[in-house]
Amino acid sequence: MATRTAAERRAETAAAYDAFLAACPTRQLLDRIADKWVGLLLVALADGPCRYSELARRLASVSQKMLTQTLRRLERDGLVVRTVTPAVPVRVEYALTPLGQGLRPIMQAIKGWAEANMDEVVAARAAYDRRAAAS
Amino acid sequence: MATRTAAERRAETAAAYDAFLAACPTRQLLDRIADKWVGLLLVALADGPCRYSELARRLASVSQKMLTQTLRRLERDGLVVRTVTPAVPVRVEYALTPLGQGLRPIMQAIKGWAEANMDEVVAARAAYDRRAAAS
DNA sequence: CTGCATCCCGTGAGATACTG
DNA sequence: CAGTATCTCACGGGATGCAG
User: Fold this and answer.
1) Mean pLDDT, rounded, of chain B
2) Strand ranges (DSSP E) for B1-135?
3) 8 A C-beta contact, residue B46 and residue B104
4) How far apart are CA B87 and CA B82, in angstroms?
């Protein structure tokens, strides 16, 4: 059957686009690094391995749940390695893998742009809000 | 009063950290560009101004609500300009500002890393899941 | 010390219907 | 054509309590 409604065709296009997006490497990377705690964790681990409790202290406001969850995700993605030293009490250390290290230039680029341009963005926001308030 | 419980001190540290995070330019930029549709919109607008309906067509699966919402945010941040041509029917064009253009190298860097390394990440995930399944 | 399980709630995104 | 308004629902994330 060659005849489809316009709505059907649109739905197909959208489905194909969704599939494309789900597979898009850039989207996946963006989703990963934009996570609330990932960036902080990457920084915290940048200068060497770190214990769980030490990480909890550095990221002062992270909940245990989110810290563990984020670390697991990074471990699964091969960006971080988890090393357990059996002892009493247990000692667990996290460290960046070479792959995780490779993320640093990216984060640096983002940080650089942000520090150079975010004040302009903030100014734009203020101007926009002023116009909106004057309506 | 100089004496506070350990819990109080921790709460203060966390609050201060939260305030720091909220003000952090890098966090703000990350939150903005990691938005599901922002990256796509940036690409769609990269080669010149574009009408609302044209954008809707290019980002096949975006809802009107999200398209408008995302465009408003970008406009507010001074990354995009909205130009209304009064006519019947109305014609609205969106275009990148110079500030918005400046984001392209960042997005390129992210895209570059993703295309170069995400297959390794995917492999790491598969290996991790295999180990988990074998438990 | 390092974590997992559970409950709870706010935000955000989609669907749908209506307007200048 | 280019939106706005409202409803609903799922998911993320915090708090808390328990366990190896």
Assistant:
1) 92
2) 50-51, 80-85, 91-96
3) yes
4) 15
- Of A61, A121, A123, nearest to B14 by CB-CB distance is A61
**pTM of this structure:** 0.91
Q: Say which CATH topology domain A35-134 has.
A: Arc Repressor Mutant, subunit A (1.10.10)
d(CA B79, CA B67): 15
Alpha-carbon gap: B23 to the closest alpha carbon of chain A (Å): 11
The full set of domain ranges for chain A reads 35-134
Cβ contact A89 with chain D strand, < 7 A: yes
- Strand C atom within 7 Å of A64 CB: yes
Query: Under DSSP, is residue B95 helix (H, G, I), strand (E, B) or coil?
Result: strand
Q: What is the pLDDT of residues B52-76, one digit of tens each?
A: 999 999 999 999 999 999 999 999 9
Helix, strand, or coil here: B114?
helix
